[in-house]
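Journal club prep, notes for RB
We'll compare a predicted complex against what the paper describes. Inputs for the zinc ion case:
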Amino acid sequence: MNIVLLGPPGAGRGTQAALLEKKYRIPKISTGDIFQKELWHESDLGKKIRGPVKSGQMLPDALVNHLVFHQMQSTDCSRGFVLDGYPRTVTQAQALDHHLAATKQPLHLVLLLELDASILTDRLAYRRVCPKGHGEWNIRLRPSKLGNQCEVCKATLVQREDDNPQSIRNRLLMYAKNIESLKKYYGGRDLIRAVDAQGSPDETTQRIEAALREVPAVAESKHFKQPG
Ligand SMILES: [Zn+2]
Protein backbone atom coordinates (compact mmCIF):
# COMPACT_ATOMS: atom_id res chain seq x y z
CA MET A 1 0.00 0.00 0.00
CA ASN A 2 1.18 3.46 -0.91
CA ILE A 3 0.61 6.03 1.75
CA VAL A 4 1.39 9.69 2.27
CA LEU A 5 1.54 10.75 5.91
CA LEU A 6 1.01 14.46 6.50
CA GLY A 7 0.82 16.49 9.67
CA PRO A 8 2.54 19.39 11.36
CA PRO A 9 6.05 19.10 12.76
CA GLY A 10 5.70 17.50 16.18
CA ALA A 11 2.54 15.52 15.39
CA GLY A 12 4.38 12.21 15.70
CA ARG A 13 4.61 11.48 12.00
CA GLY A 14 8.04 9.88 12.33
CA THR A 15 6.87 7.53 15.07
CA GLN A 16 3.73 6.49 13.19
CA ALA A 17 5.58 6.08 9.89
CA ALA A 18 8.12 3.83 11.64
CA LEU A 19 5.30 1.68 13.04
CA LEU A 20 3.68 1.34 9.62
CA GLU A 21 7.06 0.46 8.15
CA LYS A 22 7.60 -2.29 10.68
CA LYS A 23 4.09 -3.72 10.69
CA TYR A 24 3.50 -3.81 6.94
CA ARG A 25 7.13 -3.99 5.82
CA ILE A 26 6.78 -0.94 3.62
CA PRO A 27 9.74 1.44 3.67
CA LYS A 28 9.36 4.79 5.34
CA ILE A 29 10.70 7.53 3.17
CA SER A 30 11.15 10.62 5.26
CA THR A 31 12.44 13.99 4.14
CA GLY A 32 13.48 14.64 7.74
CA ASP A 33 15.62 11.47 7.78
CA ILE A 34 17.13 12.29 4.38
CA PHE A 35 18.14 15.80 5.48
CA GLN A 36 19.42 14.64 8.89
CA LYS A 37 21.62 12.07 7.23
CA GLU A 38 23.16 14.64 4.91
CA LEU A 39 23.76 16.98 7.83
CA TRP A 40 25.27 14.23 9.96
CA HIS A 41 27.67 13.14 7.21
CA GLU A 42 28.50 16.78 6.44
CA SER A 43 28.13 16.02 2.75
CA ASP A 44 28.26 18.81 0.18
CA LEU A 45 24.50 18.82 0.19
CA GLY A 46 24.47 18.77 3.98
CA LYS A 47 26.65 21.88 4.09
CA LYS A 48 24.40 23.62 1.61
CA ILE A 49 21.17 22.91 3.47
CA ARG A 50 22.45 23.43 7.03
CA GLY A 51 21.54 27.15 7.12
CA PRO A 52 17.99 26.85 5.77
CA VAL A 53 17.24 23.71 7.81
CA LYS A 54 18.51 25.29 11.01
CA SER A 55 16.28 28.32 10.64
CA GLY A 56 13.26 26.28 9.57
CA GLN A 57 13.07 27.52 5.99
CA MET A 58 11.63 25.33 3.29
CA LEU A 59 14.10 23.86 0.83
CA PRO A 60 13.41 24.37 -2.90
CA ASP A 61 10.69 22.06 -4.26
CA ALA A 62 12.94 20.77 -7.06
CA LEU A 63 15.66 19.71 -4.60
CA VAL A 64 13.21 17.99 -2.24
CA ASN A 65 11.49 16.19 -5.13
CA HIS A 66 14.81 14.99 -6.45
CA LEU A 67 15.92 13.61 -3.08
CA VAL A 68 12.62 11.86 -2.39
CA PHE A 69 12.36 10.25 -5.84
CA HIS A 70 15.98 9.17 -5.67
CA GLN A 71 15.28 7.52 -2.32
CA MET A 72 12.12 5.85 -3.66
CA GLN A 73 14.03 4.46 -6.62
CA SER A 74 16.89 3.12 -4.55
CA THR A 75 14.54 1.47 -2.02
CA ASP A 76 12.50 -1.71 -2.46
CA CYS A 77 8.98 -0.29 -2.73
CA SER A 78 7.43 -3.47 -4.14
CA ARG A 79 5.08 -3.75 -1.14
CA GLY A 80 4.44 -0.03 -1.10
CA PHE A 81 5.81 2.93 0.83
CA VAL A 82 4.95 5.45 3.46
CA LEU A 83 6.04 8.98 2.65
CA ASP A 84 6.65 10.89 5.86
CA GLY A 85 6.47 14.66 5.67
CA TYR A 86 6.30 14.82 1.91
CA PRO A 87 4.78 16.47 -0.09
CA ARG A 88 4.80 19.80 1.73
CA THR A 89 3.47 21.97 -1.07
CA VAL A 90 1.03 21.52 -3.93
CA THR A 91 3.96 21.83 -6.35
CA GLN A 92 5.58 18.85 -4.62
CA ALA A 93 2.27 16.95 -4.65
CA GLN A 94 1.98 17.49 -8.41
CA ALA A 95 5.56 16.31 -8.93
CA LEU A 96 4.81 13.22 -6.82
CA ASP A 97 1.75 12.45 -8.97
CA HIS A 98 3.88 12.67 -12.09
CA HIS A 99 6.52 10.43 -10.56
CA LEU A 100 3.96 7.83 -9.46
CA ALA A 101 2.22 7.88 -12.86
CA ALA A 102 5.58 7.45 -14.61
CA THR A 103 6.49 4.50 -12.39
CA LYS A 104 2.92 3.05 -12.52
CA GLN A 105 2.28 3.22 -8.79
CA PRO A 106 -1.08 4.33 -7.44
CA LEU A 107 -1.45 6.49 -4.35
CA HIS A 108 -3.90 4.78 -1.99
CA LEU A 109 -4.28 7.13 0.90
CA VAL A 110 -3.20 10.43 2.39
CA LEU A 111 -3.34 10.43 6.18
CA LEU A 112 -3.42 13.80 7.88
CA LEU A 113 -2.45 13.86 11.56
CA GLU A 114 -4.28 16.66 13.33
CA LEU A 115 -3.63 18.14 16.74
CA ASP A 116 -3.64 21.32 18.69
CA ALA A 117 -0.88 23.75 17.72
CA SER A 118 -0.08 24.51 21.38
CA ILE A 119 1.06 20.92 22.02
CA LEU A 120 3.41 20.88 19.05
CA THR A 121 6.01 23.31 20.35
CA ASP A 122 6.61 21.19 23.46
CA ARG A 123 6.85 17.99 21.50
CA LEU A 124 9.50 19.49 19.21
CA ALA A 125 11.52 21.16 21.93
CA TYR A 126 11.90 17.86 23.85
CA ARG A 127 12.49 15.67 20.81
CA ARG A 128 15.77 13.76 20.51
CA VAL A 129 16.78 11.73 17.47
CA CYS A 130 19.30 9.03 16.59
CA PRO A 131 21.95 10.73 14.43
CA LYS A 132 22.03 7.60 12.29
CA GLY A 133 18.31 7.73 11.56
CA HIS A 134 16.98 4.93 13.79
CA GLY A 135 14.14 6.96 15.13
CA GLU A 136 13.14 9.61 17.55
CA TRP A 137 12.25 9.83 21.21
CA ASN A 138 11.00 12.55 23.51
CA ILE A 139 12.72 13.19 26.81
CA ARG A 140 9.39 14.02 28.41
CA LEU A 141 6.76 12.02 26.58
CA ARG A 142 8.56 8.94 25.27
CA PRO A 143 12.15 8.66 26.52
CA SER A 144 14.54 6.09 25.09
CA LYS A 145 14.80 2.96 27.23
CA LEU A 146 18.56 3.57 27.22
CA GLY A 147 18.42 7.12 28.54
CA ASN A 148 20.24 9.37 26.11
CA GLN A 149 21.17 6.54 23.75
CA CYS A 150 19.49 5.18 20.63
CA GLU A 151 17.59 1.97 21.38
CA VAL A 152 18.87 0.45 18.13
CA CYS A 153 22.55 1.42 17.84
CA LYS A 154 23.30 3.08 21.21
CA ALA A 155 24.51 6.27 19.53
CA THR A 156 24.09 9.34 21.72
CA LEU A 157 20.77 10.96 20.88
CA VAL A 158 20.91 14.49 19.55
CA GLN A 159 18.55 17.38 19.14
CA ARG A 160 17.76 18.09 15.52
CA GLU A 161 19.29 21.33 14.33
CA ASP A 162 15.88 22.57 13.31
CA ASP A 163 14.28 21.92 16.71
CA ASN A 164 15.18 25.36 18.03
CA PRO A 165 12.51 27.94 18.97
CA GLN A 166 12.89 30.16 15.90
CA SER A 167 12.87 27.25 13.50
CA ILE A 168 9.92 25.62 15.25
CA ARG A 169 7.93 28.84 14.84
CA ASN A 170 8.86 29.10 11.16
CA ARG A 171 8.02 25.51 10.41
CA LEU A 172 4.64 25.69 12.09
CA LEU A 173 3.83 28.88 10.16
CA MET A 174 4.97 27.33 6.90
CA TYR A 175 2.93 24.22 7.57
CA ALA A 176 -0.21 26.23 8.30
CA LYS A 177 0.32 28.18 5.09
CA ASN A 178 0.53 25.10 2.88
CA ILE A 179 -1.74 22.50 4.42
CA GLU A 180 -5.04 24.03 3.31
CA SER A 181 -4.13 23.88 -0.36
CA LEU A 182 -2.80 20.34 0.06
CA LYS A 183 -6.09 19.34 1.70
CA LYS A 184 -7.96 20.74 -1.29
CA TYR A 185 -5.58 19.05 -3.72
CA TYR A 186 -6.06 15.58 -2.25
CA GLY A 187 -9.60 16.18 -1.00
CA GLY A 188 -10.76 16.69 -4.58
CA ARG A 189 -9.82 13.08 -5.26
CA ASP A 190 -11.20 11.79 -1.98
CA LEU A 191 -7.77 10.50 -0.98
CA ILE A 192 -7.34 12.23 2.35
CA ARG A 193 -8.38 11.05 5.83
CA ALA A 194 -7.90 13.18 8.93
CA VAL A 195 -6.66 11.33 12.02
CA ASP A 196 -6.87 12.80 15.50
CA ALA A 197 -3.28 12.69 16.81
CA GLN A 198 -3.90 14.00 20.34
CA GLY A 199 -3.24 11.51 23.10
CA SER A 200 -0.80 8.64 23.12
CA PRO A 201 1.04 7.29 20.06
CA ASP A 202 -0.87 4.00 20.52
CA GLU A 203 -4.22 5.74 20.29
CA THR A 204 -3.09 7.48 17.10
CA THR A 205 -1.92 4.16 15.66
CA GLN A 206 -5.34 2.64 16.31
CA ARG A 207 -7.02 5.54 14.54
CA ILE A 208 -4.64 5.21 11.60
CA GLU A 209 -5.44 1.51 11.28
CA ALA A 210 -9.16 2.25 11.38
CA ALA A 211 -8.65 4.79 8.58
CA LEU A 212 -6.65 2.23 6.57
CA ARG A 213 -9.44 -0.34 6.91
CA GLU A 214 -11.92 2.10 5.38
CA VAL A 215 -10.01 2.32 2.11
CA PRO A 216 -11.05 -0.62 -0.07
CA ALA A 217 -7.80 -0.73 -2.07
CA VAL A 218 -5.83 -0.93 1.16
CA ALA A 219 -8.10 -3.26 3.13
CA GLU A 220 -8.17 -5.72 0.22
CA SER A 221 -4.43 -5.72 -0.31
CA LYS A 222 -2.82 -8.90 0.97
CA HIS A 223 -0.15 -6.90 2.74
CA PHE A 224 -2.76 -5.34 4.95
CA LYS A 225 -4.50 -8.63 5.73
CA GLN A 226 -1.23 -10.37 6.50
CA PRO A 227 1.10 -7.84 7.98
CA GLY A 228 4.76 -8.76 7.83
ZN1 LIG B 1 20.60 4.58 16.17
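Talking point for the session: The chain has one domain: 2-117+163-225.
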